[in-house]
Amino acid sequence: MEVLDAVVVGAGQAGLSTSFHLRRRGVEHVVLDGDAAPGGAWQHRWDSLTMRDVHGVAALPDAEAPTGDGPANLVVPASFAAYERDHQLPVERPVTVRRVEDAGDGSGLLVVHTDRGDLRTRTLVSATGTWTRPFVPSYPGRDTFVGPQWHTHDYPGPEAFRGLRTAVVGGGASAVQLLGEVAPVTDTLWFTRRPPVWRTDDFTPEAGRAAVAMVEDRVRRGLPPASVVSVTGLVLREQEHAAADLGAYRRRAMFTALEADAVRLPDGTREPVDAVLWATGFRPAVGHLAPLRLRSERGGITLDGTTAVADPRVQLVGYGPSASTIGATRAGRAAARAVAAWLERRGDLSPTG
Predict the structure, then answer these.
(1) Is the dihedral of CA 24, 25, 28, 30 positive or negative?
(2) pLDDT tens column, 293-334
(3) How far is CA 349 from the centre of its chain?
């Protein structure tokens, strides 16, 4: 069986950036994408999310950032497709990676098991992001609620909520954004576990670096990663001011249970609701790495930069501090550098300078 220098799992921002830098360094590799088309998670975003609504999409290496006023789920995937084509990146799709494990024969290789056969590789870069692992917390009565429940992952657009009294759950940027869309067409109630932290100052580059450093510290200590957005604070954009005028951002303490047509509040009273929108985030999609036992006793994967401390053959990008488009782009370069350094130490790759 052919042995690759590297396998990249995922073809979003982080995966494409890594592939670009691996090619520049002469590292023989393949990118395995679980989707049938280019675009990573962007192709699955809701139709009402336009480019003016997103926080910004960082440029891929040696390319301009995608621009336009159209739906983000069309503009960004088209940009990614052109990037793959222009740079002749070795992307194969659709390929589902089931698990990655040590070859177990003393060769020091990894075996990547997929639905299209197995691959043997010297290193692996996991760029699987979080989109495939939406998180919905377990609450008493959630299965008895008779109305529709959606997660951000499956958000159908604001018209689906028209006339429905909707509980929006979550204290992050996605909750703020979705409230901005839904509140003008229906009655909303906003529930969070903790009071939201609003940012009142300008988000300077220094503030951004400080936020990333906080997330980096978590993964360095082996803790589950927090999102970068979670430590930067919330801010209302111009398109959310109408929802604010309607009182959509008056936060309520988290309910204690769901009932058939209501939520039960901490003081025991009931609040009727017709629908629930769970803006409760995502978890890292790293289940394929489970056989490698990378997790620390604290529940996260300890990283040194992008390198898994428990197994330096493995790089993680789009995880923890690089779980943003600008972070993912930078992490791709760091991961490619680490892969090349590992191969050079093992004598499998000539130094490229």
Answers:
(1) negative
(2) 999 988 899 999 999 999 999 999 988 777 677 788 899 999
(3) 31
DSSP designation for 224: P
Alpha carbon separation from 41 to 46, 74, 131, 294, 313 (Å, rounded): 11, 11, 6, 25, 26
H or E stretch covering 275? strand 275-278
Backbone angles phi, psi at 160, to 5 degrees: -65, -20
Q: What is the pLDDT of residues 169-186, one digit of tens each?
A: 999 889 999 999 999 999
Q: Which residue has tokens 């698990």?
A: 99
- Hey, what domains does the chain have and what are their CATH numbers? 3-132+282-346 (3.50.50.60), 142-198+234-278 (3.50.50.60)
Rounded Cα–Cα distance for residues 275 and 188 (Å): 10
Contact partners, residue 296, CB within 8 Å, separation at least 6: 222, 302, 310
Helices 13-24 and 72-86: angle between axes, nearest 10 degrees: 10
CB 319 within 8 A of CB 307: no
Pick from 155, 198, 202: which is nearest to 179 by CA? 155
Residue 128 phi/psi, 5-degree rounding, is -90, -5
> Please, what is the Cα angle at 223 between 197 and 10, to 5 degrees?
90
